[in-house]
Amino acid sequence: MNQQMVKSFATFLIFWNIIIGSSIPTLRNSIVSKEYFKVSENVHDKQSSNEALLIVGGGNNDGYLSSVEILDPVSGQGCLLPNLLPSGRFSHSQDQYTVCGGFNENQNEEDKSTCLTFSDGEWRQTTVLREKRAEHVSWNMSESGNEGVLLIGGRRESDWNLGYHHGTELVKADGTTEISFGLKYFAVGSCLINEGNSFLVTGGMQLFSAVSTVSRYNEKGWMEDLDMMNVERLNHACGRYVDNNGNKVNIVVGGKTLSNDLTDTSEINIDATRSWKLVAPLPSKLAGLRGVTFKNQFYVTGGYDVYDLMKTDVYKYEDNPDGNLWKSVHSMKVPRASHSLDVVENFKALACDIRSTTPTTTTTTTTTTTTTTEHVHPHIISFTIFIVMLVICICLSIIILILSICCCCWMRKAKNIPTQSS
Length: 422
Fold this sequence. Notes:
Blueprint: H1 2-23, E1 52-56, E2 59-60, E3 63-64, E4 68-71, E5 78-80, E6 89-90, E7 93-95, E8 98-100, E9 103-104, E10 114-119, E11 122-128, E12 137-140, E13 149-152, E14 167-171, E15 177-182, E16 191-194, E17 199-202, E18 205-206, E19 209-210, E20 214-218, E21 221-225, E22 237-242, E23 248-253, E24 266-270, E25 277-279, E26 290-294, E27 297-301, E28 313-320, E29 323-331, E30 340-344, H2 347-350, E31 366-367, H3 378-421
């Protein structure tokens, strides 16, 4: 009987392994599915003065992405551009048409030490950095009256234990660079809020765990620390907007916490104050999401959830007099996390006029602290199948156990019959 039970459970474990291996999606360094790169038929070379978001690279369950798309988060119009990055980039920085650093699908060391600029319909290398850099942040210094982009923090190696940067590098307008000031704290997986003449570095990683520190810097270096956020976070989104009372408001959203869990929390800080206040949470726990302010509305895009499922969702934060909430608005063309985005103009250079493209999928459902909604993606279907198969396996194991007990009882009874007859 014991041998029969062992065989039965061995069969069950083999069946279980097959189900697990085929149901849970993983992040692979593979070529992105070609279906993501079907460019809209309405893309054409026509000048447009409208602003939109230029979204570049990142990663999803198919690997590191070289795809580039443009999206108007107000109307939902947008398209995938035919002009792909030379290779997939992940955890890089972006300032308008220029991306710097990041990892790539082939772990190409050059990608972590170069900047590419989109010009005349193609991506061209414009800068070779002095140091390899990924998971960093950047500050466009134009609002402060200076030229150039300051690259801040990050790390040199893909190994989490190596190569944290403790300084900054200035990329000048002519493409040359110079080492700039040092940082008070490491800035790995942090998020930067541009205040114009200064910037805030929020959260990130110190000693291999998320932190809640917030530091203000200007072009000369560290200025002061604000109060700590209510939640430690890294790989989160952040931004700045003006509320209905005319206050400039800093906001941080989502990310990974000190315990390495994902969070849906959101916090705001009123300009010229030091404290942070918790506000309406996201509809779901997300990390790797990216934020941007577009026409004074703060949006977050993409990211991955607690099941490592990559998202196309775009949420808008609404700070209304009667309460704040997150509203699900539109979707990106491609699910992505740890991507980059910025507000750009001049769609002639992008060969994409968003006014003539088909809007992406939209929803009018709003999300508050008591009601949450999410788009349904194919990955969700895979997870649902996994849950169904899990229930089936549990039921099968119970049936096998019952049958084994019945067989045991029958064998004992059969063994006792000759003894009783004699």
